[in-house]
Structure formats: structure tokens, C-alpha cells
Design brief:
By secondary structure, the protein is mostly helical. Helices cover 78% and strands 0% of the residues. It is built from 5 helices and no strands.
């Protein structure tokens, strides 16, 4: 199990899920809800997470911390956009 985590496969799966979320964000129905900042953060987080397997930075603390920081900042940005849209 530790080898599987160190290889980065769970992060790659999360990156694919973030990319699917990015595709959903770009549909016409949700275009007005999310800002460009949120879209950019989500796609960068997806690229970084998927890149963890071929570049092997999932085994280092700094690599994992960077992935989590990008993922959390993308989620916070999308939540802020959603809440802002609901209030309007």
C-alpha cells in the first residue's frame, strides 16, 4: 500500500477527477458561476496531480504539500464562487 501511495496513483486519480470537474465548470450552464481564477486553479491542480506519477514527486513531502495546497486553494475558490453566485 505504501508503494502504491508513493507512486502517486491516488493523486493521479484525483487529478482526473479534478479535470472532469474542470470540464463541467466550462459548460454553458455553469459558465457564469465560476470565475477564470477558479478554472485556472482547478486545471493547474489537475495537471500537477496527474504529473505526480511520471515525475515521481508524490514520494516527497514537498511534492505532496504542493499538490494539497493547489487542490485546497482550487476548492476554496470554487466554493467562494458558488456562494457568491447563490447570494446574487
Amino acid at each position: 500500500m505504501n508503494d502504491w501511495l508513493a507512486a502517486g496513483y491516488p493523486y493521479e486519480l484525483a487529478g482526473f477527477l479534478y479535470y472532469v470537474f474542470f470540464l463541467m465548470m466550462n459548460r454553458k450552464r455553469y459558465a457564469a458561476v465560476y470565475t477564470k481564477r477558479s478554472r485556472l486553479l482547478v486545471v493547474i491542480a489537475a495537471i500537477v496531480m496527474v504529473g505526480s506519477v511520471p515525475f515521481h514527486y508524490a514520494g516527497t513531502f514537498l511534492g505532496v504539500a504542493a499538490m494539497f495546497a493547489l487542490a485546497i486553494s482550487a476548492l476554496i475558490s470554487t466554493i467562494a464562487d458558488t456562494l457568491k453566485n447563490r447570494r446574487a
